[in-house]
Design brief:
mainly beta, ten-stranded antiparallel beta barrel, 10 strands
C-alpha cells in the first residue's frame, strides 16, 4: 500500500511539473517559414480577432487595420481597432529590434516595456496592459504567441491573467496585404 502511495505521488508530481513547463520559444527553432518581425510587420495588415472569456465563450469580436514601418532597428505598429459593438480604439506600438531575434515594445496603454523573442516561425512576448472594463482600468498580463503560417498569414494567441489567474484569451489572425 505504501509503495502504491509513493508511486502515485511520484507520478502526480511528475505530471504537475510537466503541466507547468509549457512551450518555450526555443521549441520552434528551425520551424519554417522563419519569422522576421521587421519584414512581416512592414506595410498594411488586416487582423480579425475574438476575445474568449474564462469559460471559452466569445465575449467580443474585433477587426484591426495595422500600418507598420521600420527604420533600421526602430519600428512603429499603428493599430486601429473596431469592435463588434462599434467601439473604436487605437494603439501605437513603438518597437525596437535588440538583435538575435529579441525585441522590446512600448505603447501608451502598456505598463512598462514588453519584451519578446523570435525562433523559427514563432514570436513570444509578455507585457502588462491597462485594460478598461466597465469604467475601471485593470492591469492584466499577456502571454502572447504568434505563429507565421506563410508570407501573408500569422496566427496569434494571447492568454490574459491577473495575479496568475486565467481571465481569458485573445485569438487573432493577421493577413498582410499583397503589394
Amino acid at each position: 500500500m505504501q509503495r502504491r502511495l509513493l508511486l502515485g505521488a511520484g507520478l502526480a508530481g511528475a505530471a504537475a511539473l510537466t503541466g507547468c513547463a509549457g512551450p518555450q520559444i526555443t521549441d520552434y527553432t528551425g520551424q519554417k517559414p522563419e519569422l522576421d518581425l521587421r519584414q512581416y510587420f512592414n506595410g498594411t495588415l488586416d487582423a480579425y480577432g475574438v476575445f474568449l472569456d474564462r469559460s471559452g465563450k466569445v465575449a467580443r469580436r474585433f477587426t484591426v487595420v495595422m500600418n507598420c514601418s521600420w527604420n533600421g532597428a526602430d519600428g512603429v505598429l499603428d493599430e486601429d481597432f473596431i469592435y463588434s459593438d462599434g467601439e473604436k480604439q487605437k494603439r501605437i506600438w513603438r518597437m525596437k529590434y535588440l538583435g538575435e531575434g529579441r525585441y522590446s515594445g512600448t505603447a501608451d496603454d502598456v505598463v512598462g516595456t514588453a519584451f519578446g523573442q523570435t525562433a523559427g516561425n514563432a514570436f513570444r512576448w509578455g507585457y502588462t496592459l491597462s485594460l478598461p472594463v466597465d469604467g475601471k482600468v485593470y492591469e492584466v498580463q499577456f502571454d502572447d504567441w504568434m505563429y507565421l503560417m506563410d508570407e501573408h498569414v500569422m496566427l496569434n494567441k494571447a492568454v490574459m491573467s491577473k495575479f496568475g489567474i486565467y481571465l481569458g484569451e485573445v485569438q487573432l489572425t493577421f493577413v498582410k496585404r499583397r503589394a
